[in-house]
Specification:
The chain is built from one helix and eight strands, in the order αββββββββ. The chain is α+β, with helices and mostly antiparallel strands. Keywords: Membrane, Transmembrane, Transmembrane helix.
Length: 161
């Protein structure tokens, strides 16, 4: 008696399930990749901003060592979506000059705080300085605050670019 080959259709019925599982895995991998890429780009922005700001803080610390009347000009380029506050911490702007040695870099996702040996002030010697993203031509100069005798590095924009 001849043997009859049976038809096994289990592969056909499980095919939609396999496609669904593959699609879900693809979406999960795509989502994780996009989150990783976003975090990577944010860190790159912060590092670029920190490199730019370190030029300013290094110059400010050198000016502080030279005393009152010193000045220097420099150009600063902050990446899009990044801002920097000199001489204050977020929410404590009214505490100036207590926080005059602090500065923070803000990105869309986080705020990072740093300390400097130089004390920062606006040109009027009465508060902190904020710089938004973009290109800035700055004049750094030093001046003694008359009440306390504390030396401040004044940050002022020479001209808009």
């Amino acid at each position: 008696m001849p043997r009859r080959i049976g038809t096994d259709e289990s592969a056909v019925t499980s095919l939609p399930f396999r496609l669904t599982v593959s699609g879900v895995l693809f979406v999960v991998i795509l989502l994780l990749s996009s989150v990783y890429l976003f975090d990577f780009l944010e860190e790159a922005k912060e590092k670029t901003a920190l490199d730019e700001v370190s030029k300013l803080t290094a110059a400010a610390e050198q000016l502080s060592l030279h005393g009152e009347g010193s000045e220097i000009s420099l150009e600063l380029r902050l990446p899009e979506g990044v801002s920097v506050d000199f001489g204050a911490l977020p929410g404590r702007e009214d505490k100036w000059p207590a926080d005059a040695n602090d500065y923070c870099i803000r990105t869309a996702e986080k705020v990072t705080f740093y300390y400097s040996a130089a004390s920062f002030s606006n040109p009027e010697l009465n508060g902190p300085v904020s710089l938004a993203s973009g290109r800035h031509r700055l004049l750094l100069s030093t001046k003694l605050e008359p009440k306390s005798g504390r030396l401040f590095v004044l940050i002022s924009e020479k001209e808009s670019l």
